[in-house]
Amino acid sequence: MDTRDGEMTPGVRWSTWLAPLITGMAPRMYAPFRGRPRKPWRSPEGLAVDHWTAISDGQHNLTTDLTWWRDRYWLVHSSTPWHLASARSKLVLWSSPDARAWTRAAEFRAPGGDIRDPKLAVIGDRLFLYVLRNDGFVAEPSDTAFTVSDDGTTWAPLRACGPRGWLLWRPKQQGDAWYVPAYWHEHGKSILLRTTDGETWTQVSQIHEGGHNDETDLEFLPDGRAVVTARLEMSGSMFGHDEGCTLVAFADAPYTTWRTLRCPTTRLDGPNLFAYGGSIYAAGRHHPPSSRDAFWDRRGGFF
Prior knowledge:
This protein is mainly beta. The chain has one helix and 19 strands. Strands 9, 10, 11, 12 and 13 form a five-stranded antiparallel beta sheet that branches.
């Protein structure tokens, strides 16, 4: 992916060593909370949602993505011993004709580092996979890489993608081009990139700067306008921040000027925007407001 391939950072090394210990203790730590009532699932208005288990292999599977290509569903997810960084992490790609019975198609690794946040895109009838390499104990993304396949089973080697230091999210097609939002690896700003081949990306505009801007996603309205949501952490504190929120941004073609507002309803982490029935839906992790009862109980806090 870059010159650091194969070099394990100290943070990843410590996290990899600690994973067996922490995962062994976790069931005992979690025991007092078992049986607590959970909020019932509610489908968004106008959208009927069904759900079932796709993969259950005992691993900590996270950061999933799904697409339809060559008359099959393609599902990719991270597979790792725990949520923090691990040199044993990998991406697993599956395919299915019906989204019920899945066949393993490929695996991807970043030697010496953590790999996650995979995103699939069909560009020019080829299947592209974009991934983030993570460094440090808590798996902080540092760069984007990509690979491409003509059949879903044979893949090119991972290589660097986009301007260095920018973390690409989920590409979307508009007209004869594909667009993707990206946020800076040190947080605090996001940009829009454009490609016609899936490999070479050029900057179109800056979407936002400030608020510890993190994960940023994109969708297009039927009239061609672009809408973006971004995770605004408001600080880099592991305890979260009372003013954590979601940025919502809009732009008309050619997407060079953005109008923004902040939505305090939640801080939308891991956003996934999609269009259905003329409406746009935003899915992601929900964070309730700060309780203000304790300094560690802030919106988006680690605890």
